[in-house]
Amino acid sequence: MRAELLAWLTEVWPDHDWRRAVLHKGCFHHVALTATAVARVSCHGPQPRRLAREHANLTAATALGLPVEHPRPLSGVVEDSARSAMLVTPAPGEHRPDLGWPSVAAEFARLLDGLRAVDPADVPRGIAAPRAWCGGQRWPDIVDDHIVAILDPLEAALARRIVQELLAAEAEASTGLVHGDFGPHNVLWDGERIRSLIDFDHMCLGDPAIDLASLISFYGARAVEAVAENGASIERALRHRACFPLQLGAAAVLVGDRRLFEHALTNFTSRLRAGTLHDPHGRSPLGWRHR
């Protein structure tokens, strides 16, 4: 697979040295990194609409003057019968998975403040709608048709409930710029400062609590309260976090990835049974009852 992919990249973008590229595979992309460019290649065959949306998000981010560096488009979307891909600039900095919450909290707060400071009126047209990556407004229906339908009755009722509660809470939220997959896996460091923010595939104008929800997955709600605007945003973040496996499952349906779908479904049911659906440490939103 590596040789075939690198040969294809060499044919499409011969100005970059793909022979020594570092390859990573995510849920939806093969990522090939060189010193001069990064290729993001769909790993579910041609996905022109998905890649076009991601390209539009990066183009919008470039126009916003964010307080950190980030990848910028180097090409449009290229596709053939087997793949869709785009080229972006490398982002400076390094991953620091060794850093615990006390070491990262102030920098995450600074970056979240920078996102919140963006006036929605200044965001260019073309930015993706909330949850566009997993169906957008169709997401609840995809969940109902493909996930709820195969759960046992109690789990199905709880799945419907958390979706409905999220949508109701979200309707009361303000709208802001949301990265959508905010966490240590998508920030690059230079010493004690965040240098770059990467992976804008889920960026949208939506509920800023989405970004808090991503942090809860890594650090827990009790820690993340320190960088939240208020208690209401943490309550919404807990509800967003509970829906993450259902969003991944819906996205897997859209790209036809059975293995990813089963992984998402297992995450949902195991967290639900363990009482960690909203928070890895067991916290739940006010009024939630596991029944």
TrEMBL record:
In alphabetical order, the GO MF annotations are:
transferase activity
Give start and end of each Aminoglycoside phosphotransferase domain: 36-230
What's the short name of a Pfam family annotated to this entry? APH
Top-rank taxon of the source lineage equals Bacteria
Write out the entry's keywords from A to Z.
Transferase
Check the record and name the InterPro entries matching this protein: Aminoglycoside_PTrfase, Kinase-like_dom_sf
Q: What is this protein called?
A: Phosphotransferase family enzyme
Q: What does the record give as the organism's lineage? A: Bacteria, Bacillati, Actinomycetota, Actinomycetes, Mycobacteriales
